[in-house]
Amino acid sequence: METKTSSTRDEILTMLKVQKGLTVAKMANQLNITEIAVRRHLSTLERDGLVDSTLIRQPMGRPISCYQLTDAGEETFPRNYKRLTLDFLSDISQLGGVDLMNQLFEARQSRLTKKYEKYLVNKSFDEEVIGLAKLQDENGYMVQLEKQDECTYLLKEFNCPISDVAFEYKKACECELSLFKQVLNTADVISKGCMANGDDCCQYEIKRKEG
Q1: Which of 30, 53, 122, 184 would suit a FRET pair with 198, their CA atoms being 20 to 30 Å apart?
Q2: What whole-number distance in Å separates Cα of residue 11 and Cα of residue 15?
Q3: How confident is the model over 125-171, as pLDDT tens digits?
């Protein structure tokens, strides 16, 4: 029974991907199941944020609901962003050399620095470190922050959203360390581990500056 449910759910997603907006009646007709069954599947898909609906007014009678994929629904279909990104970077490296590659990563670092500095300005040591951890966590790094003593934190990142890039181009990791050093005005930062080098997580020791 579960296999059938899963299959019907996938069929509905595929139909909406190919045909865009569809009514319950049209989906029921194409799937050869009842409208009640279609609505049950759509209710689950809406709850999961994969589809939504728009009311379409008719010349006569009630408006009808027309269903389409959300952005999250679109993302359930195969994408190859990582490979495309790596191919672009490889082409840029061949065309412009190492200097141009470094400029790209430094430009990204500069954008993040401006963004983070606005959030961390005029903060105490603890507020800065906690704020940085929050920003990184919101950006998908799965951050764990451990306070070692009154002057020291250990920031661990268990996920790297750009891991494929970092494995190929170590400049990405260098820029992250440089970013932390720039935005933490009250602290010194030392890298203690890096997933791109085979470690279980990226680790940074963040110590309050003396004086």
Answers
A1: 184
A2: 6
A3: 999 999 999 999 999 999 999 999 999 999 999 999 888 888 888 89
Domain 81-208 bears CATH identifier 3.30.1380.20 = yes
Non-local CB neighbours of 205 within 8 Å, separated by 6+ positions: 148, 152, 153, 154, 189, 190, 192
Neighbours of 88 (CB within 10 A): 11
Provide φ and ψ at 142, rounded to 5°.
Answer: 50, 70
Cα separations in angstroms, 51 against 25, 48, 100, 124, 162: 16, 8, 42, 44, 28
For residue 23, give both structure tokens: 């009514």
Kindly report the CATH number that applies to the domain delimited by 2-74. 1.10.10.10
Q: What is residue 61's DSSP assignment?
A: S
Please work out, in degrees rounded to the nearest 5, the angle formed at the alpha carbon of residue 74 by the alpha carbons of 48 and 87.
130
Enumerate the β-bridge partners of residue 152. 149, 207
CB of 183 closer than 8 Å to CB of 132: yes
Q: Please state the domain extents for the chain.
A: 2-74, 81-208
